[in-house]
Amino acid sequence: MPSSNRLTLSLTLLLFAALPSAHADGSAANGNKVYQEECSDCHSVTAGKNKKGPTLFGVVGRASASVPEFKYSDAMKAAGKTWTAEALDEYIRAPKQTVKGGKMKYDGLDDAAARADIIAFLQTLR
Prior knowledge:
Layout: H1 3-18, H2 28-38, H3 74-79, H4 85-93, H5 95-98, H6 112-122
């Protein structure tokens, strides 16, 4: 491979590595603050305690619509998601577009860093 191609490939790989991940660099401490501001009116972080929305305790890795005592929308029941960091990032960014027909009234959070922080915080809830 000519050196110019190796340089181009190296630079491309470096640029991809530098792209922010949706969750890799989040701060759980900051995420707790963002949770308090953005989510706590409707969601608890206590196991077994639901509010307008289901508890977020243990949400990372959980199947969508799987908290037994919470009444989910038909759209959320049909979503068939697993709440990975990537799926949570997409949903927190635009819940109404991610699960069309869902009943969450939140418009979404555009700030990628704040989403990463919330996800880092949610990952601590076990």
